[in-house]
């Protein structure tokens, strides 16, 4: 069993084809295919089902995948430990974040860790909270910033960065614009603008609507917070997002919804036993989340 064979297997898993995997690992397609077949013969199991247009893992492959990932991570830790002894941080750091994240401190943390450790292969991916959490569980991401309504995603370590109430986002000339608060029952029957399923703000909105008589599904379901703003400011509906989501929006009114028990939370999640690079990023995010909390509290 060769180390490069394990890397080729993971490249095929992540890209869905031998051709795309070959581009990622900078080896010919036939070279990747040959090495994977050699590994399958050595293990005595078929890792991939090659019958469809997209290469997929067999049941045996699904069972072996976590072990293969763990083996590569263990090898990576050897290099990382040696680098740590030399005062360096090497290896890879795969980070995820929800679409449209506007927290500047997160990007500052990425810039700081990238500048301090130029040998680190730093990568970023945007997606919905639910898909990011799945990617962390599968080992495709090391750290992700995701949102949740009540409890952090199952099976992952987590800490909250923002813990915010829901607000109704409306245009300045909306009848509610002068209001100090909106009762949840008033949202029933309104043309609501919401983020998609899988986001923390939507999970919180669903929890809110679940207890309302006559509540219907949102009329507008959009992919990013920026679209919520664009629709709300034009009077096309009432956006429902967290206070943090719309904190920097112009030309709108954000009226608190009187539902203190329903909140949207955003924080960092990772698998138990994070890599050194992941721990370094998490330490930076903790420091910045503490500062963010202090600013919100006025201290």
UniProtKB/TrEMBL annotation:
UniProt protein name: HTH-type transcriptional regulator CynR
Gene encoding the protein: cynR_1
UniProt lineage: Bacteria, Bacillati, Actinomycetota, Actinomycetes, Micrococcales
Family assignment from sequence similarity: Belongs to the LysR transcriptional regulatory family.
The keyword DNA-binding is annotated on this UniProt entry: yes
GO molecular function term, any single one: DNA-binding transcription factor activity
Domain of life, source organism: Bacteria
Entry-linked InterPro entries: LysR_HTH_N, LysR_subst-bd, WH-like_DNA-bd_sf, WH_DNA-bd_sf
Entry keyword set: DNA-binding, Transcription, Transcription regulation
